[in-house]
Structures are given as C-alpha cells and as structure tokens.
Specification:
- This protein has 24 helices and 16 strands.
- With 593 residues, the protein is of the alpha+beta class.
- A 5-stranded antiparallel beta sheet has the order 1-2-3-4-5. It has a 5-stranded mixed beta sheet with strand order 12-14-13-15-16, with helices on both faces.
- The relative contact order is 0.06.
- It has 5 domains: 6-91, DNA Primase, Chain A; 106-239, DNA primase DNAg catalytic core, N-terminal domain, CATH 3.90.980.10; 253-361, Dna Topoisomerase Vi A Subunit, Chain: A, domain 2; 373-423, no CATH class; 446-592, DNAb Helicase, Chain A, CATH 1.10.860.
- The chain has helices at residues 6-15, 18-23, 69-77, 81-91, 103-131, 136-144, 149-154, 166-173, 178-183, 265-273, 289-296, 310-325, 341-358, 363-374, 380-394, 399-413, 417-423, 431-467, 469-482, 489-504, 510-515, 519-530, 540-563, 573-592; strands spanning 29-31, 34-37, 49-52, 57-60, 66-67, 158-160, 187-189, 196-198, 203-209, 215-222, 230-232, 245-246, 259-262, 279-282, 301-304, 329-332.
- Helix 3 (69-77) crosses helix 4 and helix 18 (431-467) runs parallel beside helix 20 (489-504).
- Strand 4 (57-60) and strand 5 form a beta hairpin.
- It is 54% helix and 10% strand.
- The longest helix is centred in the last third of the chain and has 37 residues, at 431-467.
- The radius of gyration is 30 Å and the shape is globular.
- The chain binds zinc ion.
C-alpha cells in the first residue's frame, strides 16, 4: 500500500470530517456521544450504525462494518485504498501529493484510469451510433423487443457498427493507443502481425456499469440468428465478470427490500421498463460467491428467476446453493409456461410479475419441484421413484422445513405420511438420535461460549493497548513473558502496527492508523476499539484477567490436542495421559491464582 505523507494525510482527514462524509449517504441523528443511522452496508429498519465524531470512526453493531472515513468511502464507493484517498482529496479540492512512493501502483492506477476512459468513450460512441442512421436496424430490433427511447437512454444502450475498425479509429482519434484499446477489451489482435480490429461488430451493446458509475465492460448481442448470441468483455484490468452484476449500478442509493436476479441483460431492462426496477443479471450463467456478497451489501432478501429452459434451471440450482451459503434469504420465482422473465412481463405486466413473487418457493420446495419434474408421476413405479429421491433430499434438511415437505411428498406420491416420514428419517422412533443431537448441540454451545470469552479478552487487550504507549508496551511484554499470542491474526497485525506507530510518537491517531489497515484488520479491530470506553489507564487488573483467559484457553486447547492424539510426537497413550494430567493441574493453579 502506498504511503501518503503524514502531514498531507492529516490535512485530508481533518477536512473530510467523518460525520459530514457519512451524512452524504446516511441520515444521522445524535443520541449520546454518537450519531446513529440505518446501516448502508446491511439491510435494517432500526438504526444500529453509529459514527463518533471525536474518534472519527464508524461502527455498525449489526453487521460489524467499521473503520475510518477512508474505509467508509472504500466500502460505499467500492474503491481501492488509493482510489478512496483520491476520492476524498477531490471532495475537498486537495491535490494528490507528488511524492506518493509506490511507483508501480501509481502506474497501474494511471493505466486503469486510461481503460475507464476508453470504455466510457466507447459507450458514448456506441450510443451515438445507435441514435444515428447506422443504428436503424438496431433501433428496430430494440423497439420490437418492447423498449422505448427513454429506457434505451437510461441503460445507455448502443450499437456497434458493421465495420472492422470504426471504434478503433474513433478512439485513436481521441488519443487512445492501440494497446489501451486492446487492454480494455475493445479490440482484438489480428492474425497478421500488428493488425487489430474491433471486438464487437454489428451488435446491440449493453454497457456494464459499476455502482460508482464507471463503465467497466460490455455485453454485445447479435440481432438476428447466429452464434455466439452474446459476446462479453473478458477479464481486463478493470473488469472481471465474476465480481460484477449487470445493472447493480441502478440500485445505488435506493432503499430496497429485495433484489431479483435474472439471467440476461434483456430481462433486466424489460422488467425495468415495466416498473420492476430491482433486477440485476449475473454475467454468464453461474452465480459466484463474490456476486452473492455484492448483493448482500444492498439487501439480504433475494428472488431468483432464470429462464425456463433446462440450462437456466440448472444454473439456478447451482446459484441457489451459493446464495444460501452466504446466508441470503432466497426465494425462487417460477414462471408458468416456461417463459423468460422478459416474455412474461411484456405479456402480463408488472402486477402479474409481482404476484409471482408472492408465490415464490423456498429452496426446499423448489428442489422438490425439480425432482418432481424429472419423474412423471403417472405410474406407481414413477411415484415410488419420486418418493425415494424426494425423501433422500428431505432427510438432509432442517426438521422445521421437513414437516411441510413430508406432507407434499405424501400427497404427490400417494403414499402414507408415515411411510414418507420413516423414509426421511423423521420418525419418532429415532429417540436415541435425538438425544445425541441434543448433547452435540450443548457441547457446541459451550465451545461457542469459550470462543466468545477468548475473543472478548483479546479485544480488551487491543483496546487497552490503543489507549497509551505504556499500555501497549506493558501488554506486549506480558504476552511475551507468558508466551501467549492473539488467536485472531488481525489483532497481531494491528498490535504490530500500534507498536510501530508508538516507536515514533507518544500519542497516536487511531482513525489515521486504522485507515492504513486492510479491511479485514479494520473489521476485526473496530469492535475492540469500542471497548476502550470501558477502560482507563489503571485497568491493569482487567488485563491480568484477560491474559489469564487467553492462557487458560491455550492450555485447554493443548489438552484437547493431546487427548485426540493430534500430536504425532506423543504416540504413547499413557504418556499422553500423564501430560494431560500435568496440564490440568497447571490449569487449575492458573484459575485459582
Ligand atoms: Zn451494518
């Protein structure tokens, strides 16, 4: 990460007061020493997002997002560190210092800027072409698909002329080099050495735009028959389809209840035209984890609605698992008659589409439907086959969800509820299993408690360290003496940064230090810094307790490791037993002291 000169950073931060920056995105009201508002990073109705003016930090008690004004801008505008600094500098009219030391990053940044600029110019060019005489056929095509001029403009649609070099010539005229044009994915190298031609020809163009309004790449659709139907920008320095969603820029700054994921550009646009304005498209068929996380920044409720064909349905099944893994609440919209969302909304309008959302299926219900569709339920044999497959799936899901599924399978297969229940492993006779599960849960809960206790102790230590240089030195010495370490790597990283900072000055600026940390470190450290209100310089006894907690935890972990035989150095059982006994004594001495 490039270092900006201290004095310059200090001025940047003092001129970008966190309360005023955050207020541009979130309505804040004062309560106590903090300002409160609804979190822009997770979906909520009651405010748990707080900003402290005197510390210049923000923190969300709901999703634990937090940091300085720099992290806030990085998250909010989806920017890298250096870009965020630049954004803040621009906001208050400051020039970037000339002596930013990281030459490589500066070059890459400059190159990215050129690619953004080339894509923006290309989008403008394609749009102009669509509106000109050249775009007559494309305009007719879009009109035939039900789009009006207003929608075309809203999405910045364009037309790539039927020519090998019209965009190339245009961009060169605007001062872009052939390499820049190729690196942006707008032109390809020809077979003949040094030759080069436009990537998209005689196609309708859909610009892919980031939430910060930058054009990143393009989708291009053929108008008549032919393959491939769609061409998309491949990976470039500024675009990776796995990290982006088409039309996510339309959701920026809106309070939305849910997001609808569809397959294609035309679905998004057509839905939008008919008043369904919360649709995005995965670029290509399979959803990725990064895309799921991107959605999570806007809402935790997702509807997914893919094309009715087999490819679409399979892609949807894969996507569902990814969304569920990210703990998004997912519902599947099933369109009758195997229509695409675009076709359906054009035929039946917004209200009909919204009512499909009301009838959307939960994940288990949808999976059962897929199993049902794969069997035809006309013979006893088929119904049995269906029941077996359905029960095999249902036995893997939560008991609460099981209940509803069992009735459905019984009804569809014509078999008795009891039969289905025993096939799903949900019968009352499995009492043994039940107690086993219960016991397992209890143990898990206890583990969870000890994890929480340890985390709290480590947070306290970090909070204490951040209060003064003396404290930091004291904690580090003590930890070295007792040979304990933070379990959380982020704390280790932050503690090192604190010590570095203290080696140069006696008083540190938390917000500034935090602004130089990675997002994951800041995320871990923020809850700790909130604890510093509870501490004073004379809180050494609290620190002693925390240290004890950490030591005890380390000993317990060691005992467990030895008894599980995880230590290859100690193959002999009797030896392990002795060692464990020794450690247990050590543990009780520690807890008594
Ligand atoms: Zn939050």
């Amino acid at each position: 990460m490039p270092m900006f000169p201290d004095a310059w950073m200090a001025e940047l931060l003092s001129r970008n007061d966190i309360v005023s920056v955050v207020s541009e995105y979130v309505r804040l009201s004062a309560k106590g020493r903090r300002m409160w508002g609804c979190c822009p990073f997770h979906h909520e109705k009651t405010p748990s997002f707080s900003v402290t003016g005197d510390k210049q930090l923000y923190y969300c008690f709901g999703c634990h997002a937090g940091g300085s004004v720099v992290q806030f801008v990085m998250e909010m505008e989806k920017l890298q560190y250096t870009e965020a600094i630049k954004f803040l500098a621009q906001r208050v009219g400051m020039e970037l210092p000339n002596d930013v030391d990281d030459e490589k990053l500066k070059n890459e940044r400059a190159k990215k800027e050129r690619l953004y600029a080339a894509c923006k110019e290309a989008a403008r060019f394609y749009h102009e072409c669509l509106l000109s005489n050249m775009g007559k056929e494309a305009k007719e095509y879009l009109a035939k698909r039900g789009l009006d001029a207003k929608t075309v403009k809203r999405f910045g649609l364009g037309y790539a002329p039927d020519s090998w070099d019209s965009l190339l010539l245009h961009l060169k005229e605007k001062g872009f080099t052939e390499n820049e044009i190729k690196d942006a994915g707008l032109a390809l190298s020809g077979k003949k050495e040094g030759s080069c031609y436009d990537t998209y020809r005689n196609r309708v163009i859909f610009p892919i735009i980031a939430p910060n309004s930058r054009v990143l790449g393009f989708g291009a659709r053929i108008m008549g028959k032919g393959e491939p139907k769609y061409l998309n920008t491949g990976d470039t320095l500024i675009f990776n389809k796995r990290n982006n969603l088409y039309a996510i820029n339309m959701q920026k700054g809106k309070q939305i209840n849910d997001i609808l994921i569809v397959e294609g550009y035309m679905d998004v646009i057509s839905l939008y035209k008919h008043g369904v304005e919360n649709a995005v498209a995965s670029l290509g068929t399979a959803l990725t984890q990064q895309q799921a996380r991107l959605i999570k920044r806007y809402t935790n409720k997702v509807y997914i609605c893919y094309d009715g064909d087999a490819a679409g349905q399979n892609a949807m099944l894969r996507g569902l698992d990814i969304l569920a893994k990210e703990e998004l609440k997912v519902r599947v919209v099933v369109i009758p008659g195997g229509l695409d969302p675009d076709e359906y909304v054009r035929k039946n309008g917004k209200d009909a589409f919204e009512s499909l959302k009301d009838k959307a299926l939960t994940l288990p219900a949808y999976k059962l439907l897929c199993i049902e569709r794969a069997c035809d339920l006309n013979t006893d044999e088929d119904r049995e086959e269906y029941a077996k497959k359905a029960c095999a799936y249902v036995s893997t899901i939560e008991p609460v969800e099981k209940e509803r599924c069992i009735s459905q399978i019984a009804r569809k297969s014509g078999l008795s509820r009891e039969t289905i229940m025993s096939q799903c492993g949900a019968t009352k006779s499995s009492k043994k299993e039940e107690t086993f599960v219960k016991r397992g849960n209890r143990r898990e809960k206890k583990d969870d408690e000890s994890v929480q206790r340890r985390l709290k102790a480590e947070r306290m230590m970090v909070a204490y360290m951040s209060l003064s240089k003396d404290n930091a030195m004291y904690v580090m010495e003590k930890m070295a003496q007792e040979d304990v370490q933070f379990e959380n790597e982020a704390f280790t990283e932050y503690a090192d940064a604190l010590l570095m900072e203290y080696s140069e000055k006696d008083v540190i600026d938390e917000a500034r230090l935090l602004s130089t940390q990675s997002a994951s470190v800041a995320e871990a450290v923020l809850p700790a810094l909130q604890l510093s209100d509870e501490l004073s310089d004379s809180s050494r006894d609290i620190i002693e307790d925390c240290m004890k907690t950490m030591q005890a935890d380390a000993i317990r972990a060691r005992i467990l490791e030895i008894m599980n035989g995880a230590d290859a150095q100690m193959p002999d059982f009797a030896e392990r037993l002795m060692e464990a006994e020794k450690l247990k004594k050590q543990l009780s001495r520690l807890l008594e002291s």
